[in-house]
Amino acid sequence: MDDDERREAGTDVRRAVLGDAHVDRAAAGATPFTEPFQDLITRYAWGDVWSRPGLDRRTRSAITVAMLATLQHEDELAMHCRAALRNGLTRDELAEILLQVAVYAGVPTANRAFRVAEEALRPEPDDPPEPT
């Protein structure tokens, strides 16, 4: 793929995973200083990595939540907890992921991640129904 194709594929996946409202806010908030970064993450993270066929989005979400919790990237963790619901994970599965984080990254890290996730997962009007 060339950059334009990666950007288009990345935009499609980013919208599917994070939702139109989030992507629209990110685009509207871009400045000349941050536009290159928005383009980079759209092409690279979403167009090159999230678009690959090797893992489904549900699995990618689980891995991403675990890594963000472990690294204590709270804003991104909140965003990806909400995205995980769009990708088919349940709240119970997210709790299991964070329990796994507690074992391998430490109880204080998971404690904070549980608080971030619980706040992030308060239902919002545009949330898809949770899978059963």
Automatic annotation (TrEMBL):
InterPro entries: 4CMD/NDH-1_regulator, AhpD-like, CMD-like, Decarb_PcaC. Residues 37-119 form the Carboxymuconolactone decarboxylase-like domain. It holds the Pfam family CMD. The keyword Cytoplasm does not apply. It is an enzyme of class 4 (lyase). Keywords: Lyase. It comes from the Bacteria. GO terms for molecular function: 4-carboxymuconolactone decarboxylase activity. SUPFAM superfamilies: AhpD-like. Its EC number is 4.1.1.44. PANTHER family: 4-CARBOXYMUCONOLACTONE DECARBOXYLASE FAMILY PROTEIN, CARBOXYMUCONOLACTONE DECARBOXYLASE-LIKE DOMAIN-CONTAINING PROTEIN. This is 4-carboxymuconolactone decarboxylase. It comes from Angustibacter luteus. The gene is pcaC.
